[in-house]
């Protein structure tokens, strides 16, 4: 055994095999095959059963949906490949440890707390999705689009049991999360495809024009929803995972990649999940909207419920129930794993398994409240807007620190616990564009990229100014 191998084994043992506070060693790097299942599984998953129908409630047209998703998902793949994966293989650090080097311990603690909690809310929405399938044999009342609170004891019991299983899987670490996705994702992808085909038959589609006319020129949004245009679809689908790519959260995943080109595997998630699966789920909801139950809601001026379990069950029976359960798991598993890493940075004395169980418990509590799933379009937009600008700090420092003449990883080198350059860059960009969104009723996803750019530029400017003062 070489000294290099001995050192790698020592690192792995001290880190519990997750390498939270050191670069991933060469012997632990993984090929593209280890990532494609995770991304296909995570993005052809529980969120898709919610997002597809929610596009219909927003009154999208056929062109807006089909072409808008094509472009928006391409922008997401390019962001992962040329930003996230590129930086990840250079540094091989988690997002949280990388930010600590730049921001300082105190500042990054606040970020990690917000990041972990938001991840838990997202995972909770996926537990909600799985619960709508598990509850079918028990004749459980399904949550409505406007529901916020648990609707009964059966709902609570099912959510708690699902949350416990998901948390245990996530707590076993990246290897288990990746393997779970590898096993589940082919089944889920096949289920989405089958649901789409069956729904087309139920809708009487026999030609492309029939398919196009399902959405046609669009419609008025359902009560309580906003109208989605072409640009809403493009920008929202680009930043649906903004915290993961331009926000750099997936540094924690791609640090295990052998090469940056592994970032291209995210296309499996975007075009199998955020394209085929969203459209298939929208077709399931289109079938439901023709039912007497849905028509009764619409006649009363109310939005029909979006319950993935019954919709999939109506299309492909028990196979649909199983698919929805597994789809929720494959999104919640890696999301809880990421949340655990965020909490690990705040509570470094706790093992990865313990903080992941903590994250899973919070996600389970969130899953009890259907609002996180029913308002998923709005929540995902807010989530990306809050977290993405922090990724700009990493990106702009990585690519422009030499041109800007600033010191890389300044908090680490200057032994700062609070880098005010980062704080003011984020606070100004967040405050300015959130004000614009609220004051002028601008869709939040529209201002995410401008806020990201401004945060990166301000970080370079403030770093140049403050570092010069210190020197």
UniProtKB/TrEMBL annotation:
UniProtKB keywords: Membrane, Transmembrane, Transmembrane helix
Transmembrane segments: 65-89, 110-133, 153-171, 183-208, 228-247, 268-291, 311-332, 353-373, 379-400, 421-437, 443-462
Keyword Transmembrane (UniProt): yes
InterPro entries (UniProt xref): CodB
Domain of life: Bacteria
Protein name stated in the entry: Purine-cytosine permease family protein
Organism: Formosa undariae
Lineage: Bacteria, Pseudomonadati, Bacteroidota, Flavobacteriia, Flavobacteriales
């Amino acid at each position: 055994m070489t000294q290099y191998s001995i050192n790698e084994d020592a690192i792995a043992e001290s880190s519990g095999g997750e390498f939270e506070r050191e670069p991933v060693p060469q012997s632990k790097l993984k090929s593209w095959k280890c990532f494609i299942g995770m991304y296909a599984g995570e993005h052809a998953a529980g969120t898709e059963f919610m997002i597809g129908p929610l596009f219909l409630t927003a009154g999208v047209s056929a062109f807006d949906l089909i072409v808008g998703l094509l472009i928006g998902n391409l922008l997401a793949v390019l962001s992962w490949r040329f930003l996230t994966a590129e930086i990840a293989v250079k540094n091989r650090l988690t997002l949280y440890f990388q930010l600590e080097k730049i921001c300082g311990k105190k500042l990054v603690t606040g970020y990690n707390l917000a990041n972990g909690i938001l991840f838990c809310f997202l995972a909770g929405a996926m537990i909600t999705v799985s619960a709508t399938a598990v509850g079918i044999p028990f004749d459980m009342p399904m949550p409505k689009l406007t529901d916020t609170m648990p609707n009964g004891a059966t709902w609570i019991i099912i959510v708690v049991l699902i949350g416990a299983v998901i948390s245990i899987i996530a707590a076993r670490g990246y290897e288990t999360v990746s393997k779970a996705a590898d096993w589940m994702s082919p089944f889920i992808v096949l289920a989405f495809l089958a649901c789409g085909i069956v729904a087309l038959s139920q809708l009487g589609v026999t030609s492309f024009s029939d398919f196009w006319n399902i959405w046609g020129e669009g419609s008025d949004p359902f009560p309580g929803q906003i109208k989605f245009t072409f640009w809403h679809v493009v920008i929202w689908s680009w930043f649906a995972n903004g915290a993961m790519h331009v926000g750099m959260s997936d540094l924690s995943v791609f640090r295990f990649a052998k090469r940056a080109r592994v970032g291209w595997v995210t296309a499996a998630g975007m075009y199998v999940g955020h394209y085929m699966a969203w459209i298939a789920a929208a077709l399931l909801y289109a079938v439901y909207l023709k039912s007497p139950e849905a028509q009764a809601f619409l006649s009363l001026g109310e939005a029909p419920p979006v319950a993935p379990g019954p919709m999939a069950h109506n299309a492909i029976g028990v196979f649909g129930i199983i698919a929805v359960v597994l789809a929720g798991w494959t999104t919640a598993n890696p999301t809880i794993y990421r949340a655990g890493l965020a909490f690990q940075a705040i509570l470094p004395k706790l093992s990865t398994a313990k903080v992941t169980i903590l994250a899973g418990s919070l996600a389970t509590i969130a899953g009890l409240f259907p609002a996180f799933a029913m308002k998923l379009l709005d929540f995902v937009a807010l989530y990306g807007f809050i977290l993405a600008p922090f990724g700009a700090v990493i990106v702009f420092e990585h690519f422009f620190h030499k041109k800007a003449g600033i010191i890389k990883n300044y908090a680490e080198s200057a032994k700062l616990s609070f880098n005010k350059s980062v704080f003011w860059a984020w606070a100004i960009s967040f405050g300015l564009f959130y004000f614009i969104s609220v004051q002028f009723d601008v869709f939040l996803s529209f201002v995410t990229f401008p806020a990201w750019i401004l945060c990166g530029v301000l970080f370079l400017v403030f770093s140049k100014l403050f570092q010069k003062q210190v020197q």
